[in-house]
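Lab notebook, design round three. We kept the backbone fixed and only want residue identities now. Task for the bench partner: fill in a sequence for the structure below.
Input structure tokens:
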């Protein structure tokens, strides 16, 4: 169903700064007519190795917070979160929910040539849940699918280390065996990973095409949203951890650090430190 409204209020969330790679694409695709509300749970990052029950509680809190913000739809910029939510949980939300895994699997599965090989790199939880793996195997043109957990990537990226010898050595550690399989496609199964894409790309065979799921969730959202407003799109950021460090990351990646607010994590959920 298409949503027609003068100005949309869209909630986006991630465990930290990785979702900014999705937000950047959204801002490029929707420079007008959208009020984005980005929640960065930097106080509790990483999500990739935490117990599923803990993450389910985090997600309930995030969805309740977005309800308070009166958003029209929720876009997950976190593969780990997307992988632990059931289709029923997604469909029972009060507003439309946009998966990052579903459109990536669908579009790649429908467009890849016959006998294609696919590799997935992701967090520990995403790999354990194997949602990419199970859904990609439904396509007969995808003959070989492998996955690899890369748990050190997210902490490294959250520290602002996106290039250099440390990054290259950790990429080599995780991807040596995978690169030898010479996959046709490599899915970046965590939204943090595009921030170290250059190192990943340099270590892979030239034949391997990198797939960034951010591209596909934006496509799905674009099919749903029709916007008539010509007012510039805006972003409000809500950060559970170090707000100053998050602002530095924003300046570095998006060239501006406006509208950043702190939130408190309490036993009742997520609350703004100041009233809206």
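Proposed sequence:
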């Amino acid at each position: 169903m298409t949503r027609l409204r003068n100005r949309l209020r869209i909630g986006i969330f991630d465990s930290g700064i990785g979702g900014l790679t999705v937000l950047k694409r959204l801002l490029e695709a929707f420079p007008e007519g959208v009020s984005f509300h980005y929640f960065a749970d930097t106080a509790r990052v990483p999500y990739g190795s935490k117990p599923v029950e803990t993450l389910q509680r985090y997600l309930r809190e995030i969805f309740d917070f977005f309800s308070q913000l009166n958003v029209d739809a929720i876009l997950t910029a976190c593969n780990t979160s997307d992988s632990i939510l059931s289709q029923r949980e997604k469909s029972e939300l009060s507003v439309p929910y946009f998966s990052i895994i579903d459109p990536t699997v669908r579009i790649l599965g429908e467009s890849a040539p016959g006998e294609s090989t696919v590799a997935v790199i992701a967090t520990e939880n995403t790999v354990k849940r194997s949602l990419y793996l199970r859904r990609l195997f439904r396509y007969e043109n995808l003959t070989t699918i492998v996955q690899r957990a890369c748990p050190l990537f997210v902490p490294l990226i959250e520290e602002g280390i996106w290039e250099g010898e440390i990054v290259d050595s950790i990429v080599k550690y995780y991807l040596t065996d995978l690169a030898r399989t010479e996959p046709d496609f490599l899915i970046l199964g965590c939204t943090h990973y595009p921030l170290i894409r250059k190192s990943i790309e340099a270590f892979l065979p030239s034949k391997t095409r990198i797939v960034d799921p951010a591209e596909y969730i934006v496509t799905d959202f674009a099919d749903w949203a029709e916007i008539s407003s010509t007012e510039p799109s805006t972003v409000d950021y809500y950060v559970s951890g170090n707000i100053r460090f998050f602002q530095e990351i924003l300046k570095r990646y998006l060239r501006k650090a406006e509208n950043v607010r702190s939130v408190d994590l309490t036993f009742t959920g997520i609350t703004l430190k100041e009233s809206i």
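Keep this in mind before ordering anything: The radius of gyration is 18 Å.
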